[in-house]
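Figure 2 data, in text form.
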Amino acid sequence: MKEQRYILENCTAFEPKDIFDCGQCFRWNEEENKSYTGIFKNNVLNVKKENEKIIFQGICERRYKRNM
């Protein structure tokens, strides 16, 4: 496993606080920098919003690709 990083740009309708603190998502913890970290299976993922960019960074079992 190795660290992976993906950035989605021009995301105006993604608000991490609304998603991860709504009661529908479980096991996501808010970090001091307002990002959220979650663990699922053998994966650790951190999600952070910077302006209109959503940054996914973490250790994942397999490589995830963007399908277009």
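Caption note: The chain has a mean pLDDT of 88.
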